[in-house]
Amino acid sequence: MTNVLDIAGGIFLLLGAFLSLVAAIGLLRFPDLLTRMHSATKPQVLGLLLVVLGLALILRDPAATAILVLVATFQMVTAPVASHMVGRASYRAGQVRTDLLVRDELGDVLPKLEENRGAP
Q1: pTM for the predicted model, two decimal places
Q2: N or C: which end of the chain has fewer CB within 10 A?
């Protein structure tokens, strides 16, 4: 049973490393900010979760597994929030290529919000 867990852990580690590599290639190859953010968050988070799972299967230590669960939880909580905030800030700063957007949901909302911001 130990050999099976070690092999499964190694496979998960390799898959996680591959997804992280795909995320890095996407950061270099995609044309605009929003697609780069997508490649930085989606495969990278899944890659990290696979690496964490692989480490948990290989180490099989309750203390190490608890720390790995904390790492995975914080990554799952912070990555979507950070990516949302960066995307929204870049949209407001005009750094998003609107010709590549399929649907612009903020186009009608943000000008109204900018008018009512209060004191300059």
Answers
A1: 0.79
A2: C
CA distance 46 to 76: 9
- Give the list of residues 6+ apart from residue 88 with CB closer than 8 angstroms, or none: 106
The pLDDT tens digits for 13-66 are: 999 999 999 999 998 998 888 888 888 888 888 999 999 999 999 999 999 999
**Residue 40, SS3 per DSSP:** helix
* Residue 79: closest CA among 111, 38, 26: 38
Angle between helices 33-59 and 2-29 (to 10 degrees): 170
Which helix H or strand E contains 99, and what residues bound it?
Answer: none
The residue with tokens 């989606």 is: 42
Tokens describing residue 38: 């997508």
Residue with tokens 């995307």: 87
The count of C-alpha atoms lying within 13 angstroms of the C-alpha of 70, restricted to the half-sphere facing its C-beta, is 6
DSSP type of residue 96: S
Contact predicate 113/59, CB 8 Å? no
User: Do 23 and 44 contact (CB within 8 A), yes or no?
Assistant: yes
